[in-house]
Each structure stands twice: as structure tokens, then as C-alpha cells.
Amino acid sequence: MPTLVNHRKAKIAVLIAVTTITALFHFFIPTEQHTAHMLHIALRKLYFLPPVMAGVWFGLGGSVYATAAVSALFIVHTFFDWPGNYMEQANQIGELASFWVVGLISGWLFDRQRLLTEQLARANEETYLSLVSALDLRERDTSLHSQRVRDFTLLLADRMGVPEEQKRIIGLGALLHDVGKIAVSDRILLKPAGLSAEERMEMRRHSAEGYRLLKPISSLAEAAEIVYAHHERFDGTGYPKGLKGKDIPLGARLFAVADVFDALTSNRPYRRAAGYEEVLRIISEEAGKHFDPLVVAAFRSIKPWEWMILRANYDEAGSRYPFWEAQLAAKTA
Predict the structure, then answer these.
(1) How far is Cα 106 from Cα 246, in angstroms, rounded to an integer?
(2) 282-309: buried (b, 16+ CB within 10 Å) or exposed (e) per residue?
(3) Are 176 and 220 in contact (CB under 8 A)?
(4) Which of 45, 85, 175, 225 is the residue whose CA sits 20 to 30 A from 313?
(5) pLDDT tens-place string over residues 273-305
(6) Which residues are paired to 291 by β-bridges?
(7) Residue of 42, 43, 99, 46 lying closest to 75 (CA atoms)
(8) How high is the pLDDT of residue 161?
(9) pTM value > 0.85
(10) pLDDT tens digits for 60-89?
């Protein structure tokens, strides 16, 4: 969010600078000489830039403010230097009207394009959600796991101050982390007992398979790197490449903590969900080994009720662990 605010402020500063420079040209270039007057008229066209730039950057609302500012400056100059030539008078009135036409059309087109882009993004997300929901249903006891882990990962990313655009990529990587399991046979994926060494090797293929599936899709290429590395460990003992420390993508390091957190706090037929203190102990003990210590520090800074609110979006009635219910009740009381 701070990055977005800074970008917005920078764009506003650019608009003010362009408008100010154009106004200086307009007000201080003399018009008595024919050559200077021609230059004056040519540079006056720069007034079209702020409305168009504001429309592209901020949409219709931004273009209205920019065009109003440009119009006010233009009218002030015209008031003090109204030309006696009827053709020049008509030209200036036409320019004033053109500022509004160009600015409003630019802003409207930008808003329309943004709306279409957002609709496309929502359609893509719905497609991804359908895919991961189908994959989660394929395995036992993992209902909505991918969606929960995405939210947990994004909470950690937010606490670490990750920029919004990077958070979007990290969220996709977390959501699609197990897409490669589509290549794992049900015989292995659904096996009730422990896996043999050969079967474990087959299961480990899912990281590389997920990467292979997503990498060719341009909008998912960066998320594919997180999918590929989501089973790496901070000490270098993970797979598939044995990456160590910060060689592991940040999204994968965030995901590692979120994934274990979800596993520990989910009820299973063979295991009750762990309480917060136990989860905190387990994750803290793995700092520097399984997990990035900085991510663990971010995890420790998040209150138990914050996690519970996220879980409450997905847990079915009766499936929640009493400890987490108590945390939520204490917060909302």
C-alpha cells in the first residue's frame, strides 16, 4: 500500500509540473512578434497533456480535475490577453472545448478498460479457484486447503510489507501450489498407509509438474517459480533443487510457514488441530531450518485472532477447534 500511495503522489507531482510548465510558456512568451506568437500558439497545445495523462492514470475523475485546472489557467490568460482577431478568438474557444472533449474521453476509456481488466481478472481467479477446489477435493482431508493457505500467505506478506503487485503474484503461487498433483496417480495420492521410497519420489514430482504446467502461461510465469520452490527448506534440505536461504523465492518462504500452520491447525480424522502455543513452538523451533527466520518473526507478530478470522471464512460449522473459537470470541466480545 505505501508503494501505491507513493506512485500516486509521484503521478500527481508530474501532472502539476507539466501543467505549471505549460502555464509558464503560455503566460510569459510574448505574442507581439509574429514568430513568437507562432511559438506561443504551438506551445499552448501542451495544455492537452495534463487531461490525457490524468485520464490514463486516474480515470474520469482525475481527468475532470486536471481539465478544470487547465481550463482555469487558460481562461485567466484569455481574460488578460483577449485577442482582437475573431479567428483567434474562435480558435481559443475551440481549444478550451477540446480540452474537455479529450480529457473526458481519455478518462472514460481508461475507466472502461480498467473495468474490463478487472472483470477478466475475476474470471481468471474464478477459474483458478475452480481448479484448486477440484484438486483439493481429490485428496482426503484437504478441503479448501489451497484457498486457506493463500490467505495465510498473504497475511504474512502484508505483515512483511510486500508491495501489492508482488502480493498478487505470491497469492497466485500459493493458491496453485499443488496444481502439479494432477500428474500424480490416485494410487499414490489416496494411499491410506505410508508411501514407499519410490512413491515418495513420484509424489515429489508435483512441484516440477506444476511449474511445467504454469510457466508457459505469461500471467502465471512468476507464480510458477513459487510453485516450483514451495517444498524448498531454508537450510537447503528441501526439494526439488535444494535451494537455500534467500535463493528460495520470497513467496515460497512465506508459503512454507502458512502451509505448516494450516496443517497444524486443521482437524484430521487421525489428529486434532493444535492450539496456538503448540503451533507457535513448532514453527519457532524450525526458524533457520525449515523456515526463514524473518518470516517466522512476521508470523509471531500476528495475533491468534487474526488467523482465526481467516479460518472462519472457510471452516465448516463444527469443524473448528475450541481454542481458535475462544480466541475469536475473546476478540469480538
Answers:
(1) 43
(2) ebeebbeebbbeebbebbeebebbebbb
(3) yes
(4) 225
(5) 788 889 999 999 999 999 999 999 999 999 988
(6) 287
(7) 99
(8) 92
(9) no
(10) 999 999 999 988 888 887 776 656 666 666
Residue 319's pLDDT band, with cuts at 50, 70 and 90, is very low
| CATH class for the domain made up of 139-332 | mainly alpha
Q: How far apart, in Å, are the Cα atoms of 130 and each of 146, 276, 311?
A: 11, 31, 19
Q: Express each pLDDT in 149-188 by its tens digit.
A: 999 999 999 999 999 889 999 999 999 998 888 888 878 8
Give 8-35 pLDDT, tens digit per residue.
Answer: 788 888 888 888 888 777 676 665 555 6
The three state secondary structure string of the chain is CHHHHHHHHHHHHHHHHHHHHHHHHHHHCCCCCHHHHHHHHHHHHHHHHHHHHHHHHHHHHHHHHHHHHHHHHHHHHHHHCCCCCHHHHHHHHHHHHHHHHHHHHHHHHHHHHHHHHHHHHHHHHHHHHHHHHHHHHHCCCCCCHHHHHHHHHHHHHHHCCCCHHHHHHHHHHHHCCCHHHHHCCHHHHCCCCCCCHHHHHHHHHHHHHHHHHHCCCHHHHHHHHHHHHCCCCCCCCCCCCCCCHHHCCHHHHHHHHHHHHHHHCCCECCECCCCHHHHHHHHHHCECCCECHHHHHHHHCCCHHHHHHHHHCCCCCCCCCHHHHHHHHHHHC
- Which grid cell is 68? 478544470
Structural domain boundaries of the chain? 2-114, 139-332
Cell of 297: 518473526
What's the rounded Cα separation, in Å, for the pair 213 and 249?
Answer: 18
Q: Scanning the structure block, which residue is given the C-alpha cell 520452490?
A: 229
303's torsion region: left (phi>0), alpha (psi -120 to 50) or beta?
A: beta
**Looking at this protein, which amino acid is placed at residue 298?**
A
Residues 156, 254: Cα–Cα separation, whole Å: 7
Query: How confident is the prediction for the chain on average, in pLDDT?
Result: 83
